[in-house]
Design brief:
Chitobiase, domain 2; 2 domains; eight-stranded parallel barrel; six-stranded mixed beta sheet; 36% helix; binds ligand TNX
Length: 532
């Protein structure tokens, strides 16, 4: 018996090693290698089953061209060898967005539950194509079964504090899809700039999109310096539509965020009548929490915001609109006669309930637009709007509370998943916001709190990481902060819970350093600075 047990234990590491040999991120549900090899070359043909569009194969061809220079012909064929087969089969693959990928000497077969499944199978296949110039590449024989753990796998980007070009956002979407992230939360408005064109309110483009001075915060020795230049810009509605389309081709939904009632300095600078004091106001030049917010007693505020949301809803086909709700000081509302009158007329107890009134009113408007309300966890204060989904950022408690109330939740607690926080404690590291979320700690994060019952836990729709760009004036600094931490997020969001092995993960991360560079992304390598 002892020999049998030892023999079995002896087998374990080999079969596990075989599974983790594949440099896949996120880790698939199941993978075994066979030792066979398929040779992918420009002559490899394509067989697409009924009901599938050419989209997933097109993206695969682009990827291979980008990282190896090889232009796949992928000619339609009926032949059975040297072929990439893409097909749908919801019986063979019962999980929504799931796929199987098999590679043998003769062919590569991706079978998806749905088109998204085929797309994800091809992302996995892409990760098996080694970067570097080549006329043919060897793909490892394997059988992979895979499907997502969470339906919501999100990455956020703040473009208010610093703005990034449309091409950077496209590259961003490519890489998110490569790691099977399916939601891009686009933080479009804040105190430091309004970044989406709203046709009905032109001062948003001429005033709110700009601030007077450029904050330079990317050098450790220059924490808060201004260069005296005007800084800003905005995405036109045409650019937004183009990005929404680009994302959809990659099975990514973009959720726009329009902040209210706080973080509104830029909008108030453009339309001072929307504040309690009437201004004048200025687009903020440095980050923080500001006392001037939208006046909750003024009907003009609701007219403005519902007009804005009408235009925004028409641009984004996704079910959610994010309306912020975080960090709204009540200083002005306390001193404002109109806000106090509103509190009396609506029989509210205090300013917190006034914020809840504000969000409910906006929520009713969203319902008429057929949109669901998403907000930061402060929307719990003073009562949640009906059917609101809560993004739990101040910690896990907001998410726990919302799930217990039967509301959907996205987990995004700052201590675990904020990519604007430092990844090392070295004084030589590039300047970041105050927190500390190193890769190793992040990788341990478990999004479903153990306090929840199984029924409550089902309200945890997924997980998201946030990146606030106060100290990221360039795409390069953004990449340094987000990669490779995004790879850990992807695994937390997609791969089955448990069974995480940091050294094995780190090995895959190292492989992906070159994979990311081949896609024009320069990740940080701060994991090499840490000795433990
Ligand atoms: C809090 S996280 C904010 C952001 C800041 C961030 C700085 C959240 C919902 N609000 O406005 O950029 O802290 O880390």
């Amino acid at each position: 018996l002892l020999l049998v047990v030892l023999g079995w234990v002896g087998l374990l590491p080999t079969s596990q090693a075989q599974a983790t040999e594949l440099p896949l991120l996120p880790r698939p549900v199941q993978a075994t290698t066979t030792g066979q090899v398929f040779t992918l070359s420009r002559h490899t043909a394509l067989r697409v089953g009924p009901g599938l569009s050419a989209g997933p194969a097109t993206r695969f061809r682009q990827y291979v061209r980008q990282v190896s220079g090889m232009v796949l012909e992928l000619k339609p064929t009926k032949r059975r060898t040297d072929v990439l087969v893409l097909q749908l089969d919801s019986t063979a693959v019962p999980q929504s967005k799931g796929y199987t990928l098999t590679i043998d000497q003769r062919r590569v077969t991706v079978t998806g539950h749905d088109e998204a499944g085929v797309f994800y199978g091809l992302q996995t296949l892409s990760q098996l194509v080694p970067p570097g110039k080549a006329n043919r590449v060897s793909l490892p024989g394997c059988t992979i079964t895979d499907y997502p753990r969470f339906p919501y796998r999100g990455m956020h980007l703040d473009v208010s504090r610093h703005m990034f070009p449309v091409d950077t956002i496209k590259k961003w979407l490519d890489v998110l899809a490569f790691y099977k992230i399916n939601t891009f939360h686009w933080h479009l408005t804040d105190d430091q700039g309004w970044r989406i064109e709203i046709k009905k309110y032109p001062h948003l483009q001429t005033v709110a999109a700009y601030r007077d001075e450029t904050l330079i915060g990317h050098k450790r020795d220059l924490p808060h310096r201004f260069d005296g230049q005007r800084y800003g810009g905005y995405y036109s509605q045409e650019e937004v539509r183009e990005l929404v389309r680009y994302a959809a081709q990659r099975h990514i939904t973009i959720i726009p965020e329009i902040e209210m009632p706080g973080h509104a300095s830029a909008a108030l600078a453009a339309y001072p009548e929307l504040g309690c004091t009437g201004g004048p106001y200025h687009t903020a030049t440095f980050w923080g929490v500001f006392d001037d917010v939208y006046c909750a007693g003024n009907e003009a505020t609701f007219t403005f915001l519902t007009d804005v949301l009408d235009e925004v809803a028409a641009l984004f086909p996704g079910q959610y609109l994010h309306i912020g709700g975080d960090e709204c000081p009540k200083t002005r509302w306390r001193a404002c006669p109109k806000c106090q009158r509103r509190i009396q007329e609506e029989h509210l107890r205090d300013e917190r309930e006034l914020q809840s009134y504000f969000m409910r009113r906006i929520g009713r408007h969203l319902a008429t637009l057929n949109k669901r309300l998403l907000g930061w966890d402060e929307i719990l204060e003073g009562g949640l709007p009906p059917a609101a989904t809560v993004m739990s950022w101040t910690g896990e408690q907001g998410g726990i509370e919302a799930a217990r109330l039967g509301h959907d939740v996205v987990m995004t607690p700052e201590k675990q998943v904020y990519f604007d926080y430092f990844q090392t404690l070295y004084p030589t590291d590039s300047l970041a916001a105050g927190g500390y979320t190193p890769l190793q700690q992040l990788y341990r994060y478990e999004p479903v709190p153990t306090e929840l019952t199984p029924a409550q836990a089902r309200h945890v729709r997924g997980v998201q990481a946030n990146v606030w760009t106060e100290y990221m004036p360039t795409p390069g600094k953004l990449e340094y902060m987000v990669f490779p931490r995004l790879l850990a997020l992807a695994e937390i969001a997609w791969s089955p819970g448990g069974g995480r092995n940091y050294p094995a993960f780190l090995q895959r991360v190292r492989t992906h350093n070159a994979v990311l560079h081949a896609q024009g992304v320069a990740p940080s390598r701060t994991y090499d600075w840490l000795t433990d």
